[in-house]
Amino acid sequence: MPNLKDLKNRIASVKSTRKITKAMQMVAAAKLRRAQEAAENARPYTERFNAVMAGLASAAAGSDSAPKLLSGTGSDQTHLLVVMTAERGLCGGFNTNIAKLARTKAQQLVAAGKTVKILTVGKKGRDQLKRDFGDHFVGHVDMTEVKNVGYADAQNVAKDVLGRFDAGEFDVATIFYSKFQNVVTQIPTAQQVIPFEVPEDYEAPDTLYDYEPDEEAILADLLPRGVATAIFAGLLENGASEQGARMSAMDNATRNAGEMIDKLTIEFNRSRQAVITNELIEIISGAEAL
Amino acid sequence: MQFDLVSPERSLASMDATSVQIPGADGDMTVMSDHAPTITTLRPGVLKVESGGTSHEYVVTGGFAEIGSQGVSVLAEQAVAKGDMTQDQLDAMMDDAQDSYNRAKDGGNVDDAAKLLADMVAMGGEIGLSPKQPSL
To answer: Does A241 lie in the same domain as A279?
Structure first.
């Protein structure tokens, strides 16, 4: 039987763990609200941007002079996987789920004889993919210093990706991130950004637009921005997902700590009772012997 | 006529406007209600909105404007109310433009980058800040 002092210490330690997880949960809840707001504020831009871009792209898709970002390089031999994860752990399966999706995709591509290159955004994804795909890494974007994701951060990632594309380093780029559905559900998602894909449910609007300068020039201007917009949207979704996942993970941890404290307290009381009973028996039997 | 100005991070303005002057890539254009549906890219410049007797001015760079039957929406990569624009922000934008020009010089579209830089300088002058002299 563990002695009383040990039990007391364990209860105290679990209690302080519970305090920490409780605090982390509350911090995550506050951050989640801010992250969700940021994601919502960005939505009008992304929606309108994608609508216009889909219109232009579906019109230009067939033509020979379509920009490479739309028509592709004519091959799909080399794939770039941009894996966007968090910088911190303790957020349930958030990082693992994204890494798992990226790993499955990478394995499929390798099995099909394609060349895979991986660009990681966020430390956790890098750590998880290092063992299996460490030699496929081509770069890493550090986000440790970034408190609130801004469009400039997405632009930096996009610049890196587009630079590699212009240098002919890859043919197809896919971004991996987690879509925020609600606090308990985050859906790891893969989205192809280069070449640009017109969404399947896209319907051409009735309005016929005039274009200034002309359609092709606008498209050439918008496509690189589209990559940044997609990455930005992904980063924002990730931000909300991370906080949501951390919040529910910490909520679970707090509850588990509570259960553990209850169990330990019962055990502590039992052993204390046993000690008292023992003492009584000793006293009584001592008195009887006289 | 409905006017919306959105940047990737947030929506900056949404109001009923009588006229909007847009710094289009091919030149300024003023939009009033029942304008023909048009999509134009933006050059760095100042966007002027007339709304109920008051006028609002915004500094915008990069992006496009969509003029539809309901109104105008301007999607700008960077958009700041003119009064909030600081010298630091302008300097940062100038550095960016200079960067892309330098990159364009070794194999790229030099003309476009040079125009971007020149537009930046013109914009700086227009909003009363002193733009750095670009090195071409």
So the answer is: no
Q: What does pLDDT average to over chain A? A: 90
Whether residue B73 sits in one domain with residue B18: yes
HSE, side-chain direction, 13 A CA sphere, residue A177: 25
Annotation marks residue A91 as catalytic: yes
- The catalytic residue among A86, A91, A149, A230 is A91
Q: Is the pLDDT of residue A78 over 90?
A: yes
Range of the domain at B48: 2-83
B4 shares contact with chain A (CB less than 8 Å):
yes
Q: What is the CATH number of the domain that holds B70?
A: 2.60.15.10
Check pLDDT > 60 for residue A93: yes
Quote ipTM for the complex.
0.83
**Chain B nearest CA to A151, separation (Å):** 7
Interface of A with B in 32-71 (CB under 8 A): 38, 41-42, 44-46, 48-49, 52
B108: pLDDT confidence band, cut at 50, 70 and 90?
low
Structural domain that includes position A47:
35-249
